[in-house]
Amino acid sequence: MYQYDQIDQRIVDERVAQYADQVRRRLSGELSEEEFRPLRLQNGLYMQRHAYMHRIAIPYGNLRSDQLRMLATIAREHDRGYGHFSTRTNIQFNWVELEETPEILRKLASVQMHAIQTSGNCIRNITADQFAGVAPDEQVDPRPWAEVLRQWSTFHPEFAWLPRKFKIAVNGSAEDRAAVQVHDLGVYLKKNAQGEVVMDILAGGGLGRTPIVGAIIKRDLPWQHLLTYCEAVLRVYNRYGRRDNMYKARIKILVKALSPEKFSKQVEEEWQHLKDGPSTLTQEEVDRVSKFFAPPVYEKLADTDASYEKHLIDSKPFARWVERNVRPHKVPGYAAVTLSLKQRHIAPGDATDQQMDDVAALADEFSFGEIRVSHEQNLILANVKKRDLHTVWERAKALGFATANIGLLTDIIACPGGDFCSLANAKSIPIALAIQDRFNDLDYVHDLGDLSLNISGCINACGHHHVGNIGILGVDKDGSEWYQVTLGGEQSSGATGAHLGKVIGPSFSAEEMPDVIAQVIDTFVDNRIEGERFIETFGRIGMAPFKERVYASRQAHA
């Protein structure tokens, strides 16, 4: 993982000191809330419904064990004993006191972490594949390139006040596990016929009020030009993006208004002023960053292990966990483990201070002291020996992180919703918990196969509901909380890419939602061909059978 040098550390320490003085002036009354607001937002501090929320950056979802322990300490000493891992691979503390936030940032700085650019109209935390560096289908490790982008974008003076927030995702594998197509700017890394790293650049994706799947605007960009080309994209957006209407200020609106072709042409023209300029990457710089992501010292192991194979035969629960929560690794004898933060009766993405400490201990013992965070709000141990998998499973069970549901119906993505967020129209967490309660038979859920269910409490779509096979959106209806259901979304579908879900019809009350989802699932079960996934059945039979059944059932219970 990347390690700060003296310059990095000084920058972060100076920001902490600056922020501490700003908080002092706010508490003394020297700064009004209106004056303080942009300052706190630059340091990831939001005012929520009940308290301040502090959002901490986890760059491209990578954590060291000492960093996770520090997050546990912050949860214990400055919050209510837990944190919430978000779909941006950040962590949020929902109950912090303003006067304690400088100390939170000091503690973060001591382990090379910060909250810079986790809010505001700037380039936000850059995300990547949670299996980067270990995935068998990977052509190029995205982490060095994400780190290059992070360093370039942090405190970039030209892009500190964009028309709206700006999100970047980087992927280097055949499968898009980073949801690149629904980001403002996406980078697909690959190798050309000569074995050189090149990039396809995507722009104009995003969810929220106007969901749009992004378009490729540049193919086969040589790696040397990553920063200059991204700078050209941002300059065009900064110049022409709308500032008169925040609902039309995202880059996706500009790309759609111009067309991807015309936007690409404008970027190309701007790029001619930047190409081969000071931001051009050199091999020396890429090598400098890449050395931090060199593979750990793996043991030379056979790809099979007798004790592991025996446990698979002897223990059905362990075998099921391996099937759902363990992924292949590019190094023989190793595997990548996903720890499910979707335990029943617990808000998706939440982890207590003790759980974070215990996961850090697992990482030290079994995965080279490294933890990953996925945008599905789970934690990953990316380098576990197969012979250790049974022990890791037993330890994860004790933590409550061994639910064998990764990629299944109850692996729900959900934003904090109306329980915390001041922007939310409706609560997300109670809906997620009610659905988990309704589908608490893991055998049945397992038989349903791959199926994503995503919940957002408002149109900002922090829960990525548009790209869930089943999406749920909280809406306000005459001052009451209601829920709109979409079907057919998918974050990635091979060559055909991402798909946005379609609204099934009029919204539902909170009390109706478990029954609505049950009717959707029953329709799938009744119509699927053996081995068919939900998204495949939906693609084959369309919306009509689902809609007919859901609303017929609603009418019958009216």
Automatic annotation (TrEMBL):
InterPro entries: NIR_SIR_4Fe-4S, NiRdtase/SiRdtase_haem-b_fer, Nit/Sulf_reduc_fer-like_dom_sf, NO2/SO3_Rdtase_4Fe4S_dom, NO2/SO3_Rdtase_4Fe4S_sf, NO2/SO3_Rdtase_FeS/sirohaem_BS. The keyword Transcription does not apply. Residues 48-110, 336-398 form the Nitrite/Sulfite reductase ferredoxin-like domain. One of its GO terms (molecular function) is heme binding. Pfam families: NIR_SIR, NIR_SIR_ferr. Keywords: 4Fe-4S, Heme, Iron, Iron-sulfur, Metal-binding, Oxidoreductase. Residues 119-273, 411-550 form the Nitrite/sulphite reductase 4Fe-4S domain. This is Sulfite reductase.
